[in-house]
Design brief:
Blueprint (H helix, E strand, L loop, with lengths): L15 E5 L5 H10 L3 E5 L3 H11 L2 E2 L3 H5 L4 E4 L4 H8 L14 E4 L5 H13 L3 E4 L2 E2 L1 H7 L2 E6 L2 H11 L3 E8 L3 H29 L4 H8 L7 H12 L8 H18 L4 H15 L10 H9 L1
Parallel strand pairs: 1-2, 1-4, 2-3, 4-5, 5-6, 8-9
Antiparallel strand pairs: 7-8
Helix pairs in contact: 1-6, 8-10, 8-11, 8-12, 8-13, 9-10, 11-12
Length: about 300
């Protein structure tokens, strides 16, 4: 099975592009850039994965972020967390050490708004543009090239980035200044957490009541209860299948970012905080790598 699906790419000038981080999202995203005609160099902490990417897509790979970014007009990144991001940007072998004035760094990591603002300042001191650009759509969205990208930064930097990002995105939107993309992603995760908990309770309730939940999900999916989660996870939640999608560990990482930001700005998130605790229960059940829809497993366990 190919790691990316075929798609119609935007008609853009071929650029020298670097992609840092070849996880479940970065690997296919970088692949779409290569298929769109850009000259792509990749870096990954695991060299084997970088070699595999280069073999599949015909690009180059480098031993350090700085080496990978040396001649790039645009450097894109998708790593694990704030510390990983600092390492590949401002670390001793980070990309900002070798990037030239006038180039652009675009970060797809789901990270804190604080680190986005910090790196925006670090990049601008070197004459480098910076856009924080977390994504939504999951692994399937990355493979199919239909991600939603939420951006923060200067309009001029966004205008340079937007045509390139459309190689793997269906929607690319500038939400405001530095950190705005990360804050938008936090809003996204708050919505998802509440939706999945509500869907979990609804399915568990229907099962306890003896309803044919596959039939129920089809019916309510045609009304006001319809959502992406219902359409794409309802049937598998009923069956107790969670071996795909966005992992609980990753969701808890994201919700920590949300709750930390709320503590800073004074927002009240009682439901989000509660759902975060529920995901902790799922981790205690051994569901660290289960899909986020596994919230229902906690309720099903409680009814046994």
């Amino acid at each position: 099975m190919p790691s990316i699906a075929a798609k119609q790419y935007p008609d853009t000038t071929a650029l020298d592009i670097t992609f840092l981080g070849l996880g479940v999202m970065g690997f296919p995203m970088a692949g779409h850039l290569a298929r769109a005609g850009h000259r792509v160099t990749v870096f990954n902490r695991s060299t084997d994965k970088a070699l595999r990417w280069a073999q599949e897509f015909g690009g180059a790979h480098a031993a350090t972020p700085a080496e990978a970014a040396r001649n790039a007009r645009i450097v894109l990144c998708c790593v694990g967390n704030d510390d990983d991001l600092r390492s590949v940007t401002v670390g001793p072998e980070g990309a900002l050490q070798s990037m030239t004035p006038g180039s652009l760094f675009v970060d797809h990591t789901t990270a804190s708004a604080q680190v986005a603002r910090e790196l925006y300042q670090a990049a601008n001191k070197r004459g480098i543009g910076f856009v924080d650009a977390p994504v939504s759509g999951g692994q399937a969205g990355a493979q199919n090239g239909v991600l939603t990208v939420m951006c923060g930064g200067d309009p001029e930097a966004f205008e340079k980035a937007e045509p390139v990002l459309r190689s793997y995105a269906q929607a690319v939107t500038l939400l405001g200044g530095p950190g705005s993309g990360q804050l938008c992603k936090m809003v996204n995760q708050i919505c998802i957490a509440g939706l999945i908990q509500g869907l979990s309770e609804a399915i568990a309730f229907g099962q306890t009541a003896g309803l044919d939940m596959q039939q129920v999900v089809k019916v309510i999916g045609k009304g006001a209860a319809q959502s992406w989660q219902l359409d794409n996870r309802g049937a598998s939640m009923i069956k107790g299948q969670f071996d795909f999608g966005f992992a609980v560990d990753w969701m808890r990482k994201d919700l920590k970012l949300v709750l930390d930001e709320a503590a800073r700005n004074g927002a009240r998130l009682p439901v989000t905080a509660l759902v975060d605790q529920f995901y902790g229960d799922v981790q205690q059940m051994g569901g660290n790598r289960w899909d986020t829809s596994s919230l229902i497993a906690r309720l099903q366990k409680m009814t046994l």
